[in-house]
Amino acid sequence: WHGIRQLSPDKITPSDLVSGPYLYYPAVTLPHKNHQLLFRSIATLRDQGRFPYRLVLTGAKSKHWPQLEKEIQSLSLQEVVLHLGYVSYGTVLSLIRGAESLVFPSRCEGFGIPVIEAAMLERKMITSQLDVFAEIGVPDAHHPLSHHGGDKDKIEKLVKDEDPRDPLTDQAIVEILEKEGIRIARRTVAKYREQL
């Protein structure tokens, strides 16, 4: 990737600024960065008992931050959301390396360099579905936390067990996995099949 230096996971020490598992979002608090949707999604998951993480934010606090703080309070996320403010590039990399997943819910993005950095640092990613992320291999290359580490294995088992005279279509596999609570794109199924 032009303009991005190569990163080696073994050369970046995971951050110790946050105790316990966390998700990380490095972004200025501008409306198109979609912090509000992220907070609401986390509150919903927390209320369902499905969010055992902290959410760590970094980046400049724009004029929109006071409204986002009110949203955090209204959703009772004060103990979940931690905003560290602007931090050094080295700290950003350490936070990415230590995170369970990078989250990037932007409504629009020019390139999404933190997503590339997370991929190089072998971190999971949860991103919005933007063309720019599809172009760099997300979500095809890295799946969100709902990826229980076995999507590819499940697809392989379905393909292995299918009737060779009446093979499953990629869409049929998508629908079978959806019934198991796994959301995956048809093109991802096709890509995994090519690898088998």
Summarize the structure.
The protein has helices at residues 35-47, 65-74, 89-98, 113-120, 131-135, 151-161, 170-179, 186-195, and strands at residues 22-26, 54-58, 81-83, 101-104, 124-127.
Strand content: 5-15%
What is the chains' assembly state? single chain
Distance between the termini: 28 Å
In order across it, which strands form the biggest sheet?
Answer: 3-2-1-4-5
**Relative helix content:** 25-40%
Morphology call = globular
Give start-end ranges of low-pLDDT stretches.
Answer: 140-149
Cα-based radius of gyration, to the nearest Å = 18 Å
Q: What this model shows, in words?
A:
With 196 residues, the protein is of the alpha/beta class. The protein is built from eight helices and five strands; from the N terminus they run βαβαβαβαβαααα. The protein has a five-stranded parallel β-sheet, with helices on one face. Helix 7 (170-179) crosses helix 8. The protein is globular and about 60 Å long. Residues 140-149 have low confidence and may be disordered.
Features:
196 residues, 39% helix, five-stranded parallel sheet, 5 strands, alpha/beta, 8 helices, single chain, globular
SSE diagram, text form:
Layout: E1 22-26, H1 35-47, E2 54-58, H2 65-74, E3 81-83, H3 89-98, E4 101-104, H4 113-120, E5 124-127, H5 131-135, H6 151-161, H7 170-179, H8 186-195
Parallel strand pairs: 1-2, 1-4, 2-3, 4-5
Helix pairs in contact: 7-8
